[in-house]
C-alpha cells in the first residue's frame, strides 16, 4: 500500500520477482531501474537490450516500454581489463562493501549507478574500489519490465537509488 492505494496484491515471491510498480520493487528490496530497448518479440517472449546485452523476457512488451527492474542479486560480475572499460556492458567499480553473506558493489555504467549483490563465498573477491573494470552479466529471468510509468517517475526512482 502506498499513500492509501493498493499497488499490488499477490504472493510475496511473485511481488518480489515481478513487482507491479517501482514503489513495490523498492518496498520489497533493493532494485536497479535501467533503460531498455525492445529488439524483437515473438508471442509471449521478448528480447530486450539491457545494459549492453540481449536478455529474454517472458512477457509481451509494449513498444513504448523502455524501463526494466534488475535486482542486485541477479547481476554477475566478471573481471575485465581497464582498457576495455568503454564496452557497453562493462562497468567501473566505485564502492564495495563486505556484508557477511553478501558483497554489495556499486558500479558506474552509462552514467548511472548500478548495485550488484554477490554471494560472499569463501575466497570471494572484494573488487578494488576506484577503477576495477567488470563485465555485467544479468542472470536468465533476472529482469522485469516496468509498465505504465513516465520518464519523470523513472528518473526520480533512479536518482533515489543512490540515497
- Calculate the terminal CA-CA distance, rounded to whole Å: 22 Å
Mean pLDDT, all residues: 84
Q: Which CATH first-tier class would you pick?
A: Mainly Beta
Based on the coordinates given, report the CATH architecture. Answer: Beta Barrel
Please state how the strands of the largest beta sheet are arranged side by side: 3-2-1-4-10
Q: Work out the count of structural domains.
A: 1
Low-confidence stretches: none
CA-based shape: globular
What would you give as the CATH superfamily? Nucleic acid-binding proteins
Annotation field: number of helices: 3
Please state the structural category: mainly beta
Oligomer: single chain
What does this molecule look like?
This protein has 163 residues and is mainly beta. The chain has one domain: Nucleic acid-binding proteins (OB fold (Dihydrolipoamide Acetyltransferase, E2P)), CATH 2.40.50.140. 14% of the residues lie in helices and 41% in strands. The strands form two sheets. A five-stranded antiparallel sheet has the order 3-2-1-4-10. It has a five-stranded antiparallel sheet with strand order 5-9-6-7-8, with no helix packed on it. Strand 6 and strand 7 form a beta hairpin. The longest helix is centred in the last third of the chain and has 11 residues. The radius of gyration is 16 Å and the shape is globular. The model has no long low-confidence stretch (mean pLDDT 84).
Amino acid at each position: 500500500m502506498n499513500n492509501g492505494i493498493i499497488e499490488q496484491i499477490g504472493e510475496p515471491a511473485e511481488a518480489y520477482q515481478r513487482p507491479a510498480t517501482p514503489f513495490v520493487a523498492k518496498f520489497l528490496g533493493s532494485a536497479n531501474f535501467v533503460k531498455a530497448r525492445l529488439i524483437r518479440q515473438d508471442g509471449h517472449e521478448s528480447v530486450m537490450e539491457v545494459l549492453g546485452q540481449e536478455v529474454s523476457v517472458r512477457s509481451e512488451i509494449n513498444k513504448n516500454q523502455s524501463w526494466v527492474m534488475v535486482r542486485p542479486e541477479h547481476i554477475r560480475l566478471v573481471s575485465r581489463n581497464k582498457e576495455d572499460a568503454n564496452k557497453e556492458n562493462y562497468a567501473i567499480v566505485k564502492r564495495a562493501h563486505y556484508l557477511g553473506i553478501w558483497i554489495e558493489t556499486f558500479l558506474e555504467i552509462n552514467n548511472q549507478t548500478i548495485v550488484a549483490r554477490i554471494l560472499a563465498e569463501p575466497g570471494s573477491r572484494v573488487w578494488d574500489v576506484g577503477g576495477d573494470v567488470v563485465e555485467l552479466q544479468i542472470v536468465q529471468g533476472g529482469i522485469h519490465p516496468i509498465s505504465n510509468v513516465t520518464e519523470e517517475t523513472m528518473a526520480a526512482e533512479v536518482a533515489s537509488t543512490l540515497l
